[in-house]
Each structure stands twice: as C-alpha cells, then as structure tokens.
Amino acid sequence: ANRLNAMMLDLASKYPAPNFTDPSPTVFNNYLAFQRNNDKLDSMNAKIDYVPTAKDNVSFRYSEQWIDRNRGGFMPDDLNSGRGDLDATNSGISHTHIFTPRLLNEFRAGYNYLRFGNIPVNYSMFTDRYNIPGANVAPGFPNFNIRNLTRPQPIRALSTLPNPFRIIQNSLQLMNNMTWNKGHHTMKFGGEFSYHRNNTSS
Description:
By secondary structure, the protein is mainly beta. It has helices at 6-12, 126-130; strands spanning 37-53, 56-71, 82-100, 103-120, 165-182, 185-201. Strands 1-2-3-4-5-6 form a 6-stranded antiparallel sheet, with no helix packed on it. The two termini are 37 Å apart.
C-alpha cells in the first residue's frame, strides 16, 4: 500500500462511486450521470438616423450581445464542469455629405469588442495544492488518464476553445470615400484604416 502515491489516491477518490450496472456483461460502464446544460442569451440593438441638413445624412447603430453557457460534468462538486461566455459589442456611424449634385462624400466608422472563452466552474487550484511535477499551474481539476476510467478533463462549453481559455478582441475601422461625376465618367477615391488587437490567456 505504501507504493501508492498519496496525491493520486486523493485525486482518484474524487471520482463518484458506481451507481449503474449494464445488463450486458461486455459493457463495463458503471456510472450514470445526468449532465445539465444551461444557456442564456440576451441582446440589444439600437439605430438612430439623423438628417441635420438637406445635404447631410447621419446614421448610428449599436448592438450588444451576452451569451452564457454552463455545462455540467459527471464529477461531484462541479470538478470538471465548464462555463463559457460569448459577449460582443458592435457600433458604427456613417455620415454622407453632398457637396454638389456631382460630388458626394461618405464617411464610415465601426468598432467591435469581443470577449469570449471557457473557464472551469470549480476554480480550485489542484495542481498548486499537490505540487504536481511538470504540471501547468491552472485552475480546475487535473486532466489525468487512468486506465478504464473516464478522463476528468474540463468540459468546454464553447467546443472550439480549450478550457481554461480567454480571448479579448478589439477592432476599429475607419473609411472615407468621395464620388465625383464628370460628364460620362464617375470617379471614386478614398482611404481606409483598420486596427486589430487580440489578447489571449489560458
């Protein structure tokens, strides 16, 4: 018995006790769990159009979205449950000005702010508590592999991203175009500026 690692014995003890026996002797699964999935979605949209003069037209829009997903795991105390969120903010403004019947200018600006990722529901620092050699110090139950036991890896509420993982994106776009009609010809020229920034953590 003294050859068994106390740390692994403690981690293995977190597994729930068997509660199920399959009628088929070839099926070795012995635990049945009901995993809860809770999703919440809220959104808001606003748009304003303003005509200050006969030659000017201004439009403004704003959108906000909040998505929250909770995925329950099979282990007690939410040891491998996961939570994901996908929040987004989008805003834009445009201004069209008519200099003459043949000369028109259009300005547009847009901004996007995204925040999304996965985190464990149970934020206990097991790797720090047990001083596991070579393990990344990260919140949540360690994802180890024991033969014939289901791995306790954290559930990814946002399936395309690992858990834990967080990303924040900022993007800004400015654009200006001028259109000039001359005789049988139409000329359009302008410029565009874009700024993007991503911050990630895991």
